[in-house]
């Protein structure tokens, strides 16, 4: 197995024991999508988020890519710098996404473009992701995918293409509103970015009543902001696993303080799968 960093072996073991003892009927999963379920590197080459592929592709107006990349260069450093306060990150991410969504609308994004994008862009899921999702489906364990992607509506499309869009999966993400011609006119509120997931409530979803019965939670993310997905939920036992993909040397100590388990260097789902398979032992 890859190098796995467990912050507190004793505490982890106690949490694991309690969660597994309670059984699958008391358990659910919260997960980010981009660079959490999907790979951050392929054959040693850094992959990108869904939005990065759109920024660098020839899908919208001729000046879209230039303007979108300028926004990325301006705001992404704030997103990945662990030395910057949460409050400042929140403000910068809101500013970034609000500006970028306006740019998408001004650039003519529509349903046909999204369909073509999904056909063109071949995302790769982490090794073991399919096995993980199959296990959750087999045991009827709810999986809540909460994503700040600017193209949240393509997430179910990708899962369906890979044969992984199971009935136990719910996707909470930025969704577009379209006019009668299929052109994007606005983004549904609230806008979700990587550091306000704690403000996104799930209580409007049909699955929420079921989640209230399942207070043992596994949280998976690649950003410190992903930890906010659990805020506001009255859990009993929480296990957090962070995939550390960028600036490993600089960010490792911070991730170790925030996550129960850190999987560095674009690791696989092997550790995660070993954990959930404990329900069958």
Secondary-structure blueprint of this entry?
Layout: E1 5-6, H1 9-22, E2 27-31, E3 41-42, E4 45-46, H2 50-56, H3 64-80, H4 86-106, H5 111-120, H6 129-138, E5 143-146, H7 155-161, E6 169-172, E7 176-178, E8 184-187, H8 208-211, E9 216-221, E10 237-244, H9 248-258, E11 261-264, H10 270-276
Parallel strand pairs: 2-5, 2-9, 5-6, 9-10, 10-11
Antiparallel strand pairs: 1-11, 3-4, 7-8
Helix pairs in contact: 2-3, 3-4
What this model shows, in words?
The protein is of the alpha/beta class and 281 residues long. The protein contains ten helices and eleven strands. It has a single domain, classed as 3-Layer(aba) Sandwich (Rossmann fold). The strands form three sheets. Strands 1-11-10-9-2-5-6 form a seven-stranded mixed β-sheet. A two-stranded antiparallel ribbon has the order 3-4. A two-stranded antiparallel sheet has the order 7-8. The chain is globular. The mean pLDDT is 91.
What percent strand?
15-25%
**Percent range of helical residues:** 25-40%
Number of helical elements: 10
Distance between the termini: 20 Å
Gist of the model:
The protein has 281 residues and is of the alpha/beta class.
Labels describing this entry:
281 residues, alpha/beta, Rossmann fold, two-stranded antiparallel sheet, 38% helix, 16% strand
